[in-house]
Automatic annotation (TrEMBL):
It comes from Plastoroseomonas hellenica. Belongs to the iron/ascorbate-dependent oxidoreductase family. Keywords: Iron, Metal-binding, Oxidoreductase. This is 2OG-Fe(II) oxygenase. InterPro entries: DUF2086, Oxoglu/Fe-dep_dioxygenase_dom. It comes from the Bacteria.
Length: 246
């Protein structure tokens, strides 16, 4: 199966799908919670087609067995360029919406960096900084597998938001395996958030830091994400990270 040809005629473009969401509400949710869900970004058929790419090595530049690195249990593969059309389209269409949030966050956190309007311009910056390898990935989990809490930072240059799309249906394809975010606040105990997702839903979330409004201005919190242990079945996820890797 070839994801390049798998956009069904009449299926909305990535741009049109992204435009359907209420980005004011999503940005408010990202500001308040550090994450926001985009319901039904992909159809069940698209989810199955993308998950079916997993064994097709030609699509990927590398394969990571998580237990070998202490990352958890399960495996993933990083796509190679050129990305499948739908994936590249989603990354380019999501970026400008999230860049508005990212620029606002940086301003509130007192970070000087601002992100350009288009993903193409941001990728040029990554490449100029020596970060040239694509980071979108396909993850695969089986019974007992889990993903340790982590941050997807791959070099100096990092876009502060990323997206994960659940390709399998909870309850039918797998049990357990919840998407988890933790937030470490200065001088406070950590907060955990479990994000309920259905097949085709996407979660946008902070990669590492985000500002939280306190009584005396904004302070910075530190986030990590991961996946709790699968109790049964098989779970696939598509991860969209906006910065390239060194
Ligand atoms: O499998 C998941 O839900 C999380 C995947 C992940 O860590 C990522 O997309 O960066
Ligand atoms: Fe991740």
């Amino acid at each position: 199966m070839n994801a390049q040809t798998k956009i069904v005629p009449g299926a909305p473009s990535a741009e049109a799908r992204i435009a359907r969401y209420d980005w004011g509400a999503l940005a408010a949710e990202l500001d308040g919670q550090g994450c926001a869900v985009l319901d039904a970004l992909l159809t069940p058929e698209e989810c199955r087609d993308i998950a079916a790419l997993y064994p097709e090595e030609a699509h990927f530049r590398s394969h990571v067995v998580m237990a070998r690195h202490g990352f958890g249990r399960g495996e993933y593969r990083y796509f190679r360029y050129p990305l499948p059309k739908l994936l590249g389209g989603l990354r380019a269409a999501l970026y400008p919406r999230l860049a508005i949030v990212a620029n606002d966050w940086n301003q509130r956190m007192g970070i000087g960096q601002r992100y350009p309007e288009t993903h193409a311009a941001f990728i040029e910056q990554c490449h100029a900084a020596g970060q040239t390898r694509p980071t979108p990935l396909l993850l695969q989990y089986g019974p007992g597998d889990y993903n340790c809490l982590h941050q997807d930072l791959y070099g100096e240059l990092a876009f502060p938001l990323q997206v994960a799309i659940l390709l399998s249906e909870p309850g039918r394809d797998f049990t357990g395996g919840e998407f988890v975010l933790t937030e470490q606040r200065p001088r406070m105990q950590s907060r955990a958030e479990v994000v309920p997702l259905r097949q085709g839903d996407a979660v946008a979330f902070a990669v590492h830091n985000r500002p939280v409004q306190g009584t005396k201005g904004s302070y910075r919190v530190n986030l990590r994400h991961g996946v709790s242990r699968l109790r049964s079945g098989r779970r696939h996820t598509l991860g969209i990270i906006f910065h390239d890797a060194t």
